[in-house]
Amino acid sequence: MPQPTLNSQRPPIRHGRLLIIACGLTLTLFFCILSINRPAFFAHLEDRFFDGLITDGVPPKGYAGPIVVALDDDSLSRFGRWPWPRALIARLLTRIAEQGPVAVGIDAIFAEQELPVLREKLSSAADKLSTGDSALARALTSGPFVLGFELTFTPQTSSTEDERLLRPLNIVSVRKTGVADPRQRLWQATGAVSSLPEFVSCVALSGFVNAALEQDGILRRIPVLIERNGKVYPSLALATVLRTVDIHEAFLESDWKGECALRIGNRRIPLDDRGRLMLRFREWYGKLKPISASALLQGRLPPNTLKGRVVFIGATATGMGEAMATPVNSLLSGVQIHAIAAENILTGDFVRQSPWGYRLLAIITLGVLSTLVCVGLSVMRGGLLLGVAAIAAWQGSAWLYQANGLLLPPVLPLLVLLANFCLLTLIRSFFVEKKALRQTQDLAMTRDFIMTSLTSLAEIRDTETGAHILRTQRYLRILCQELSRHPRFHPLLNQEKIELISKLAPLHDIGKVGLPDHLLRKTSGFTAEEYEEVKKHALYGRNAIAKAESRVGAYNDELLQYAKDIAYSHHERWDGTGYPEGLRGEQIPWAARLMALADAYDAMVSRRIYKEPIPHEAAVCIIIEGKGILFDPDVVDAFLKVEEKWRQIARDLVDSDDVEVMAT
User: Fold this and answer.
1) Rounded alpha-carbon distances, angstroms, from residue 327 to 47, 214, 584, 652
2) Ramachandran bin of 582, using left for φ above 0, alpha for ψ from -120 to 50, beta for the remaining angles
3) Are 277 and 271 in contact (CB under 8 A)?
4) Whether the predicted model's global pTM rises above the 0.90 cut
5) Residues 466 and 591 in one domain
6) Are residues 403 and 520 in the same domain?
7) Which helix (H) or strand (E) holds 642?
């Protein structure tokens, strides 16, 4: 009787099904608990997913968001190092007020007098200020200024005078029945560092300038509300926005779904349970240049540039303030972060953290789906179905963010799907496969699925298309079939090896997942340093496979050895001018020599982010010119015998943007 194939195998026996269902639901429950507790490692993965969603390389036409007036290097070189004389600061504030902004947030603290004065010997408050301080106080009175202060969190005793330096927000907690007061989770400050009372009394509002980095040193969230001594204080960004409206009361809302929001008038600002706003970064934020304070002081700024705008003043000069790493691959100063937060609030362009209920629903859905698939479908069909579900979950999460600003990271749902599939497939194999051949086939299927999953992860970050992977697979299969007739390659290439090498083609550039996005998506040429970094992808690819090999104890595995050869050596050249080792001739692993030609041909006839495609004939000429220089001469000879088949593959699997070129 013929042996059943993977596609025809029957579902497990009854107790096997029950065990699969029990294990699948248990594993799903475990991931649900992880989702609620959010361990640091998984939180980091979710943050990295968020970083990859940042888009919009240029600001929208007619952008009228907040403007940053910077105390930059040019300002310090022209007017002297910081601190400036108070009279000069007053002149700057006066120039800003004359332009007619609606609100001006000052990311600076004037906690001391300009000159030492014996206050106890002076009779009036006016006498307690120097001439420069008096000028600064008058300037603060002349415009819609908001002063910054810093909240501290070290144990200390606050005084009554400290309380008068701050301007708390009149806030009311609104919560659903059975939901805890959202104010209980706000950060609790113990003290404050503020400007002198003579300056604070000149402005209507003030806000704290504190920011908070994530554990990986990246700033993605900024506190909007912090409580101190039973009073809630706004951030500088929020206080500056409030300066533009006549609203004196706010509502902090929370519901049973885990959503928390600050409602001010018709604005609803989504916050996390610690009172933090997750910033909606745009890629062009790192490219906007602030207005130099020197331009205002020297009268070089056109009139009405700041009219009707929200303005922030702060330091961006080298050595002043704190430069913070952000997901836009730029170091931004504190004042720029406050401007981004204010822009999010003013435009309603928010990131809304998905409630915990949504996260649990996603995990349960994919966990139950993967369990049912493992019970009712064959390994191959189940793997394909779950692969489609994984891609749909990833793309759906990206769409939710781009369309609605809802951040629902797919990391844990995909992990439960993959974990369920791998674990339950092994359990299923124990009950279903009675012979070693069937078990070997199941393991091979799982291995192919993992390779496809790794390739899919590489595609998410790489600019190359899925068609590139299919084309290189078919190129290699046809090239191997031709080379199997050659005396040098005949002992190496039986039908099993041909299928094996073609399946490994997608892994040749898996090391690119270790490269930063700005290199993968760069449209211009690389600098010498950037090129050296790009070349490391070959090492990253080999090391990733070797590490997995070591962890599972799969030593001397033929497939993994070929995979490492292809990933590490497919950029070596026949004359020894390639990388990473500079191998020459037969020193280069034979599988990598084949991959090198297939990859080079497809790169030439396909569009890339940095180049246009060239016709097939031109690519053939280049390969012929590289015979014995770039490529193994025998491999080139075999290519010339099948190059028309390669042309047809390139046409059949052409990228949509390359149709016209391939037609020629």
Assistant:
1) 9, 11, 42, 39
2) left
3) yes
4) no
5) yes
6) no
7) helix 633-652
